[in-house]
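#onboarding

Welcome to the new folks! Below is a worked example of what a typical request in this channel looks like: someone posts a single protein sequence, and someone else replies with the predicted structure as tokens. Don't worry about understanding the tokens yet, we'll cover that in week two.

Example request:
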Amino acid sequence: MKQPIHLDPNRSALLIVDMQPDFMPGGALPVQTESGSIEDELIAPIGALMNAGLFAVQVASQDWHPPGHKSFASAHHSKRPFETVTLNGQQQILWPDHCLQGSPGAQLHSALPTERLVSIIRKGADPETDSYSGLRDNRNPNGERPPTGLGGYLRERGIDSLFCCGLARDVCVRWTARDAVEEGFSTHFIWDLTRPVDPANDDEVRTELESKGVKIIAADQVRCHPGRADSKP
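Example response:
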């Protein structure tokens, strides 16, 4: 059995990445589930973690694309989803149209206790630039990766430890965790509260993240630090 991780609620944040219907079974760009029930596998346990009072700060990221976004295959003549092009000097996977601003597929899942969130970071709104990470956009036409503002917000709240979960394990949660380490946060990747677009990527994702200092953990390892049980969520 893995050792529990005793966190200080006042210095720890839970980041729920892109828990939107378009990334779930039946959506435009679904992840792979183990049982077929995203509600049982992710939504219920993430909701329970949100309600547990372990984190002073709980935030969510939300893909929020305009129509015609350059990461969509439909924006490129004769291209199909999952083909690649060069966008802003780097390889870009072309995706099916997904998480269109204001659409039902772009909303945070209605069964999550979103009243627990202190902030929602919307990303991918620039039609020229994709955005996987909750902390930084992908490279833009100027060759930069602009911050979303989440990193600065967390530091201003006194957060130095970040716990990541959500969708998708091999894309947006992966990039978020990698950027969090680079920005100086002690970063935990709650593996069993993520699901991948392609499970064949799991070994690569785990190896890469661990090599960068991300701690791969399970949800049942997360505990409140002794003496801090009275901290407010």
